[in-house]
Write a structure and sequence with these properties.
The complex is a heterotrimer, with two copies of chain A (about 450 residues) and one copy of chain B (about 160 residues). Chain A has about 450 residues and is mainly α. Chain A is built from 22 helices and four strands. Chain B has eight helices and no strands. With about 160 residues, chain B is an all-alpha fold. At the A-B interface, α1 and β3 of A face α4 of B. The structure holds calcium ion (CA) (2 copies).
């Protein structure tokens, strides 16, 4: 039976005390119409912490992930993430944490703000009314320049009501250009999308109009799409617009294939940075929650991000979605027990088993990648040529991307337990193979001189 | 019986009026949804395989006359109090006693079909380490009988065919 | 007050047309009392086949697994499994397939019959009434000797009613000494047993009497224990009695630790065979379905083997357990859909995704183990000493045992998807590390002469 129908039956028509519109990025104003959602929304400023979720470190500043796992820092050498990469925290902090990160000591692009501020009105103005056009102009701007504009126009808020809701109907909607472009490319590909039925239906249809989640996706999918606007792997620098790499599918192999096939406008092959010690052309992964969730059983079963991260809470006769978006482990009875009829302790134990398995394997991968980096350094020292090193460097890229796709994912693999473990197994294989490739060289004879 | 009525009398007054206790004694499912808290189960039941064949009390109240009123009294009191004080665990789940009542009611209607599956050792609940009597209650598999997929706040969205 | 008492009186006892007793191993006799269970039981003689389940090959003989996956044969060199190792099939064939396997061209022990014939009365006689004593005498007998005795005494039947049911009450029971000894050792250990609550309760109790599943386990657990009598990892040769390695727990690490700590009666360290090409002391794994199921979410949720492999089936006015024990994928509506209310095609797709991930990783492991074996051969050729090879050989043992625990498990990892993927990841890491350990040698200088 369809819980959404049931909930609809119970929803009381809300009385608006104020009108809200597209430029109302201040949640306080919306809060006057929908006080309970606003109250819970504000609580994202509260500190939360679980074994792997929320954040450690001081009230003032979340802990450095690169200090906790030094092998991460080693992987990132040559990139800003080796300077500062911390635990995530609640939505309330997203703008201030971005403005405060030491990664900004390196030049960053305006694209960054796509996911850290309520930026739509700014895009609209930059594009002379056309959001997409405005968005496409921002990657060439410096972070500081666009951030100033966001403040000057009075939209310096973290993700706000208008980013996920239509002001007229309050229906969920996707506003972020990055997602709209990315999901459309996914729809037009022939990749399997078991969890995204609306794409399968669109593909089966006339295809006259391009896939548009705001028109084609049912409410159940929108409950995840709004999150997929930001909790995704991306390219975000100044050579081309912010890109979500979904044109060949959402699995790691498909994403890697997409990046491998990507060329920059100047025609050079795509990569994020050159590894400082080895020179490998690395792909950096960022928080692929949406992609990972898509590989899991919950997604297939139609369980959305909001089901677990914004569960309903009863308010007298009605139910409201808990806008205190946080770890569901802080909220097991509402987040899990509505579907899983078993004690809280058992549910927590199941999650712990899943996360521990992935964490063990992840650390095993960390050891392997450091061994590989050192092996390559050793090979270089013994005078291996770039040609000779090529296979080892290619393997470093593959291994690192997979490790990073797990390390930067924020559920310690809960969102897709088996897929995560599989990806780590592959990462370890590539890292060790790279070591073997490099070791051949360490003891290899000088390459024969070119025949005259 | 006297005790039952006594309990009922005790339940009277504020709590029970609030809970529209009177209609509570009918077997009409609507009686249950006098409490909005029962709404999800009501809605779900209407879509369940049993909608046409069994109402709430068929499954949730024992069918021996005296016990029926005792349980109604107990539940009624519990319900009423719980509801007014609002201090109960959500999602609401069937407790051990509720499970035993369920099991008996499944058997009441389906006994002929399933008696062959049950043997003496099922009756000794001391051997049960599962919440269900005998370690293998009907709803170990048929938890959807009354309400389809689990009926709480939030539940897996039905896949359109 | 127990609301079931009234029910009990109402219940009609089975009408028995014949009495059955402990020595009635012929299912046909029981079949007269319980015809529908007998009818379905007989159907295990039918051929079944799914992508990874049932068996390929001719009606007459299942396909060789060692031909389908040549790396398996390579791993087994030096052991009888490299001669003949086929797909499993229905219970009806268990005795004839054992008697027919080419593995018998090497001497085998009487222990083999523990799981392939209805052997209890034979144990009883050999032990002068004491089953355990009789069982303990069989490992010293040759397979042929005990097999002949089983035939002569008229118990040459595959697993039969009396092996899982008490003739008086028809209640489930465990009859196999191997299981009784193994599960008792598990109970007495302090290993976590999240899926086996009766063991947790026994541990919490007085412990006056040793744990006995026939007394302590509830019906829900017995529905898996009857299968755990045979679908388990074992030692089965002539140096000591048949052993289930559960004294430290049921996970692969715990089982490996158990074998590593085991010594034969003659005091020599435990191993199954010496690898023909490398000389590594190998642990052979066999069908650990019970152990693997214990690592999975279904076990934690109280879902038993019988729930999926013997689902209820409507028979006229009654329901009976389908004794045609086989792949649940041939039976999705009854085996899965009572609990999982979604289309059959979706359920099959979920299983396929899980099995494909594990199969990919398993083949990846196969490549790695062959690379390791060749690397060691190469190192030996370049004159590496046994001492120098020790680390590589130890890694071969660890890698191979993990690969084999998955390869010989019969659900392609469905019983515990994430744990299976994790184990494969570790196997690959060990295999590659072994290669590196051996490669050092291939290029190592002669060991320095012992200092005088
Ligand atoms: Ca990236
Ligand atoms: Ca073994």
């Amino acid at each position: 039976t369809n819980i959404f129908e049931r909930k609809a039956e119970q929803r009381v028509p809300f009385v608006r005390v104020v009108e809200v519109g597209e430029n109302d990025t201040d949640p306080a104003k919306w809060g006057r119409n929908w006080p309970s959602q606003y109250d819970s929304y504000k609580r994202t400023a509260q500190r939360t912490s679980t074994k792997y979720g929320g954040h450690l470190g001081s009230e003032a500043l979340p802990q450095e992930r690169i200090d906790r796992d030094p092998w991460l820092k080693r992987m990132f050498l040559g990139y800003a993430f080796s300077i500062d990469f911390r635990d995530r925290r609640g939505h309330a902090y997203m703008l201030q944490d971005q403005e405060g990160t030491q990664r900004l000591t390196k030049p960053q692009t305006g694209s960054c703000l796509h996911c850290h501020a309520s930026i739509l009105p700014v895009y609209r103005e930059l594009g002379g009314g056309d959001v997409m056009k405005g968005f496409e102009s921002t990657y060439k701007m410096s972070y500081q320049e666009l951030d100033k504009k966001v403040h000057d126009m009075g939209h310096a808020h973290p993700v706000s009501c208008v980013d996920c809701h239509s002001p007229e109907t309050m229906a969920l909607r996707v506003t972020r250009p990055g997602f709209l472009v990315g999901i459309r490319a996914l729809a037009e590909s022939d990749a399997d999308v078991p969890a995204l039925e609306s794409i399968r239906l669109w593909r089966a249809g006339s295809r006259e109009q391009p896939y548009d989640p705001n028109r084609d996706a049912p409410r159940g999918e929108m409950r995840s799409f709004v999150c997929g606007q930001c909790h995704v792997e991306y390219y975000c620098s100044s050579k081309m617009p912010l890109t979500f790499p979904w044109g060949k599918g959402l699995s790691i192999d498909q994403i890697e294939a997409y990046w491998d096939a990507t060329v920059f406008p100047d025609g050079s092959p795509f990569y994020d940075y050159e590894h400082q010690e080895t020179g490998a052309k690395i792909l950096k992964a960022q928080h692929p929650e949406f992609e990972t969730w898509n590989q899991g059983i919950h997604a297939r079963a139609g369980v959305s991000c909001a089901d677990c991260h914004m569960p309903y809470q009863r308010e007298g006769a009605t139910k409201v979605s808990d806008h205190w978006v946080r770890s569901p482990l802080l909220n097991v009875n509402r987040a899990c027990q509505t579907c899983h009829r078993t004690d809280e302790s058992e549910i927590l134990a199941r999650v712990d088993v899943i996360q521990e398995r992935n964490h063990d394997l992840l650390q095993r991968g960390g050891t392997a990648i450091v061994d590989l980096i050192q092996e390559i350094i050793r090979a270089k020292a013994t005078g291996a040529s770039p040609e000779q090193l090529a296979p080892a460097l290619a393997l470093q890229r593959r291994a690192q991307f997979r490790l990073d796709m797990v390390a930067s994912e924020n559920s310690m693999g809960f969102h897709a337990p088996q897929e995560t473990a599989k990806v780590l197994g592959e990462a370890i294989d590539y890292a060790r193979q790279g070591q073997l490739a490099a070791r051949v060289l360490a003891s290899a004879p000088e390459p024969a001189p070119p025949s005259p | 019986m006297a005790l039952a009525l006594g309990t009922l009398a005790g339940v009277g007054g504020y709590t029970f009026r609030y809970a529209e206790g009177l209609s509570y004694f009918k077997t009409d499912p609507k009686a249950c949804v006098n409490c909005h808290i029962m709404q999800p189960e009501y809605d779900a039941w209407q879509k369940s395989s049993h909608h046409g064949v069994a109402v709430c009390v068929d499954c949730h109240l024992p069918h021996d006359f005296v016990a029926k009123y005792l349980v109604k009294a107990e539940n009624g009191w519990r319900h009423g109090k719980m509801f007014t004080t609002q201090n109960f665990e959500e999602p609401i789940t069937v407790k051990q006693h509720g499970l035993e009542v369920l099991q008996e009611n499944c058997l009441r209607c389906h006994g002929p079909l399933t008696d062959g599956l049950l043997r003496r050792d099922d009756l000794d609940s001391s051997r049960s380490v599962h919440p269900e009597p005998g370690g293998l209650a009907c709803i170990h598999c048929h938890f959807t009988a009354g309400h389809g997929v689990r009926a709480g706040l939030g539940g897996p969205q039905k896949r359109s065919p």
